[in-house]
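Narrative of activities, Objective 1.

The group set out to show that a structural description can be obtained from nothing but a protein's sequence at a throughput compatible with the screening campaign. Below is one input-output pair from the validation batch, recorded exactly as produced.
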Amino acid sequence: MAINFQQFSMIQEELRDGLILFWKKAENVLSDSGVELVIPKRDDIHLEDHFFSLLFLYAYFKAGIDPQKGIYDILPPKSVLNDIHSIKTGLLFQAPWALPDKFEDKLDAGNCEKIKEALFSIGLGCQILDDLVDLIIDLKMKRHNYVVSLFYESEKKACLKFINTIRENGETINGKGMILALQHAHPDLFRSAAHQAETFITSGCRTLFSGEQESMIPFCVSFLIQRIGAQSYFESHQAGTRLK
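Output recorded for this entry:
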């Protein structure tokens, strides 16, 4: 049977899009660290060097899912948290417990469950921070975004106009300028998302660092906000008193 090279070519382009996005995000995180990150050229990324990614992406195509199509509907904010982000990031933060759950039989089950719930809450908070930072990218790539869902729920017409502007202008758009303008026009939108993110993270940290390590709570919250690159949203709404 002949191999469908056209299909694998599509998968390779999807892989390249994802990896280039990953490298750019990593470059942004490391920008103030003194580490110089060399991003590979797009044409240097080949399927044979990322075979496990090929297997996962091909599984999508096999099932009839095209990752390049993205989403079509904007879900309500609660649905984004409960149905998308709970799996996308919430469960990811619990992943380190997969083996202890299976093989450690002397642990306090109740205490472990609280710890996992705390990690889940921190994961949700971090994903909302990510949504704040990646708002423009998520719209271009048609991915679910909590901030977009909040915007759509409160200002449907203005939200659709903003989305169309982003998608019609593609790579030529000034993302930072668009975000600043949106913040100015709809400050409560970003304030609400930032508050929800901080609430989730703080709640999880209070459980995780309860007792003698409770002084770690504000440090952990501030560190995560800054590491993800969302500090500007908190500086603008809280005068930067906590993060500066």
